[in-house]
Input
Amino acid sequence: MGHVLDLFSPPVRDWFRASFAEPTAVQEQGWREVGAGRHVLMAAPTGSGKTLAAFLWCLDRLSGEPTPAEAERCRVLYVSPLKALAHDVDRNLRSPLVGIRRQMESQGLVPPDISVAIRTGDTPADVRRSMERHPPDILITTPESLFLILTSAARKILAPVRWLIVDEIHSVASTKRGSHLALSLERLCELTRVEPQRIGLSATQRPLEEVGRFLGGMDRQVSIVDAGRLKTMEVRVEVPVEDMTRLTDEDEDSAKGQNSIWPAIYPRLLQLIREHRSTIVFVNSRRLAERIAARVNDLAEEELVRAHHGSIAREQRMLIEDELKAGRLRGLVATSTLELGIDMGAVDLVLQIEAPPSVAAGIQRVGRAGHSVGEVSRGVVMPKFRGDLLESAAVVEGMLEGRIESTVVPRKPLDVLAQQIVAMCALDEWEVEKLGRVVRRAYPYGDLGPLAFESVLDMLSGRYPSDQFVELRPRIVWDRVAGKVRGRHHPVAGHRHSRPGRAGEDRLLEGRRPEPPSRAGCRAGQDGARAAFA
Output
């Protein structure tokens, strides 16, 4: 067996050898599977080069092909569960793109101009419109934005997609958001000219086979690359007071004097932040992130740290991340927004206030420190009260032993199914039989029975299980004689790619950010599903 880099073209191979000592385990095994054309799930700890493992094969193929016609350009689709993560990947793609381009030029080759674009809830409307006219070679998006693209005229840009990368797949597989994404991926496959090769990236999970089935759906074999040796971690639980028996589990607003641990936590946080080059402090709520950042800065008498969470505007969030990477900030106080694979550069300590919500989350969070290959991840957990101390000790023990909770994929969430069926019918007319086949290809719906499926169609077409729903407007038309369903305002039955009626556009307006799938879309769908199938 030759060296794995022999799979790549000379310019890509030369760039990699000039930039890295050797491929990591996940890269070596992953490239062999991807190169063989198989769907693959790559599992490895934080900082092991997973993103490059997924992208480099695609970059090599794009670099070696002549630039196609403009409408055929979008060949790589990358789906990220976090907007901030999407921007991070965009930044990290610049280096290999520029490096490969220079290698090609030095070898007398004419490099193609590979374009990258981001489509999230932050993307301005004029940029979205421009993307439709001038599709990028690599499109970076989120599950919610992919749903909106698939339910709009913009979906035509996805027809040439050949590689589908789903990052941090473990973070959505066990949620309804993941069920929603699984249906969107099957809708994508109905749209593309060829079946896209699926490449999933995951942190260490168990069982990986379940995550692999979620990635591939019911009809596809997925090869699993398990380079999941846990990173070397040094994690300790630290109580900043002598005696916790006099403390109560009160909120920090009301906790005063002897009943509060906060007067002891703030100085210790400041001390640890000053002892390290850059630190991330994880907390479990946005309000607490803002409060701790303000108190630490007051104690330091300078702006040492900033709060980082999902409510901060995109421009501000990117500025804060860049300031930490550049060394102008000593730390961030963050919620789970920084738990996933955002490369925060040279973070050398992670502090966690309260026990992490799970062993897997704890491993992800502490893995932000020492993010580079081979580095040790260091973390300190600070419990707030005695019960929290017990939980912290149990979670940290689980982290050090790698006892990650099992991933459980939700089975047949019908509220999510109702939302996706309404979206699918907004633009197209579907044969009921084919609609059922597409839905059942998604792993969460693999065992969806005909009764449950037809009950959802019943409800969406106005046959409600109770008189209390009679005022709700039906969302679809079910022609039972012809065995077809379409949107209520579908203009011409049978014309699959016609524009939707005005109501269809209003429901799925491009610029509108969807609610989380568990309470999203058509209220009739969710309420009716609960009543019919609770």
Notes: Residues 414-533 form one domain.
